[in-house]
Amino acid sequence: MEDHSQFRLLSERRFLPFFVTQFAGAFNDNLFKNALLLLVTYTAGGLFGLSADVVVNLAAMLFILPFFLFSAIAGQVADRFEKSAVIRWIKFAEVVIMGVAAVGLWFGWYEMLFLLLFLTGVQSAFFGPVKYAILPQALKDSELVGGNALVEMGTFVAILVGTLMAGVMMKAPVPGPVIAVAVALLAVAGLIAALRIPKAEAAAPDLRIHFRPLRETWKLMAIARENHNVFLSILAISWFWFLGAAYLTQFPNFAKTHLMGDETVVTILLAIFTIGIAAGSIACERLSGHKIELGIVPIGSLGLSFFGIDLYFNMPEQPIPSDWWMIITDPHYRQVAIDLLAIGIFGGLFIVPLYAYVQREASPDTRARVIAALNIFNALFMVISALLAMLMLGVIGLSIPEFFLVLSIMNLIVAGFVYQQVPDFALRFVIWVLSHTVYRVSHHHLDRIPEEGPALLVCNHVSYMDALVIAGAVRRPVRFVMDHNIFATPIMGSFFRLAKTIPIGPKSKVPEIYEAAFNRIDEELAAGHLVCIFPEGKLTKDGEVDTFKSGVDMILQRRPVTVVPMALRGLWGSFFSHCGGPAFSHLPKRFWSRIHLLADYPVAPEEASATMLENKVKVLRGSQP
């Protein structure tokens, strides 16, 4: 039996060396950056004649500035050249930078280390686009969510471990040399892993690279805006980094002021939040059914707001001095830990499908540049997050829990705007909820549906939920052909319009709708989409498969495409079927129904006919209605 777990990717060469490379890079970036800040704060007591507080913010700016300056060029490089070679050169640069940094750490040359922190940011800015652009070339579509989940998990665990190790190494009698050896070894480990990454051919080998940072950055924004849904997904991802940066930045003062915690409380809060994001990322694979499922993105955004609001209302009224153990065991503090863990989990559910969606929907020859634009927006949103925090906490005078409450309410507003602009999110959310609550859907041989290109799906018609069950199970978007009367109902009509459903009616009664339907079907197939029809033309009234009408023959005459026979079992007797009377007029006979959706082998268009497909669907469905 095939192993569908994303963890199997960690045993395969097409993914493992890349995963180790990116993990070592994120680990090293955070170890070096945090160790440098701790050394400056506790050893040097400032730098360049500036206070430690100013130096900390200067360091953050130096690390993030390269993402604004060089992401556009980095995207061009990742599209122009073979990607594994780009990664190896980036990792070689890291070895050089960290080799020099090791000397600076050993001898305490802090001014030079700040220049190297900027160069570390440059190296990270160049790695970002190729890091995400290589995944769609290395993985199948069905593995893209799982691969992204592992990358996000690895990134956040690396951030956590790097941050914690910086603190641990600072406790060494002479911390500089210890940190120096660590950053040098991690850089070498990343390069060794990069040497094992398989080739990923250049997406745009004829692309000319222009070293004009500001102009190319502006052009990058135009490329990102070419696909409206991708652009809004980019903004949604950047909004997550806005929220994440806001939470992480406030943890030290939040722990000290509102939990009366020692330094171990800051560490446990960071660990809980990071573990939550890692767990949520990994959960995406199972919840999405091994496909890019936008339906769980609204679940993530709702969870972010709900537990952010819950955090505000569960703050201890009269905090007492605490340590990390009290945060976990004391009931007054434990709910804070649970809320932060949940915020992390729902953050993972929010971000992983969006990354996978951007990778899949971006044009292959501009994918790296689109991801470079994403990195610029991420950096911009994190800067705005810091400015908003300064305004609300410093000028307006909100407390940190009040700031978290404002962020949670803002998140609902932003989510509502994005879902209104991209109806697919709301549509897939409804489909996901129905197919994971009202019904338990088992899929059989859906891999027989072509992964790309046009195809016609034909299925028996049992209930008003048939389209939603199929849409929730099939990995690719499906255009359904349905009775035009359903569009007259306010709620269902609006819903199916969002789903780009094609209305159809009898030729004798509504000839214009009938003709328009066949034209739309032909257009959708010509565009390479999946179209699903229910050739019986109406819901079954006895649970049996009715005669297939000739519409399927007419579709294939106009546009000869592959046909995939499908069958639904288990929906007869549901509230949405005609069992026991018209649908919606009787109580359902059972809840949490076990539904089976089966697919047969594809049929060539020249072999397909209404009669032949009807027989195939009857055999596929069997005796169970």
UniProtKB/TrEMBL annotation:
InterPro entries (UniProt xref):
MFS, MFS_trans_sf, Plipid/glycerol_acylTrfase
* Signal sequence bounds: none
Keywords in alphabetical order: Cell membrane, Membrane, Transmembrane, Transmembrane helix, Transport
In which broad location class does this protein mainly occur, judging by the first location in its UniProt entry? membrane
- The transmembrane segments are 35-52, 58-77, 89-107, 113-135, 147-170, 176-195, 229-249, 264-284, 296-315, 335-358, 370-397, 403-419
Q: Which SUPFAM superfamilies match?
A: Glycerol-3-phosphate (1)-acyltransferase (SSF69593), MFS general substrate transporter (SSF103473)
Q: Where in the cell is it found?
A: Cell membrane
What is the protein's membrane topology class?
Multi-pass membrane protein
The Phospholipid/glycerol acyltransferase domain covers 455-571
Q: Name one Pfam family in it.
A: MFS_1
UniProt protein name: MFS transporter
Upper lineage is: Bacteria, Pseudomonadati, Pseudomonadota, Gammaproteobacteria, Pseudomonadales
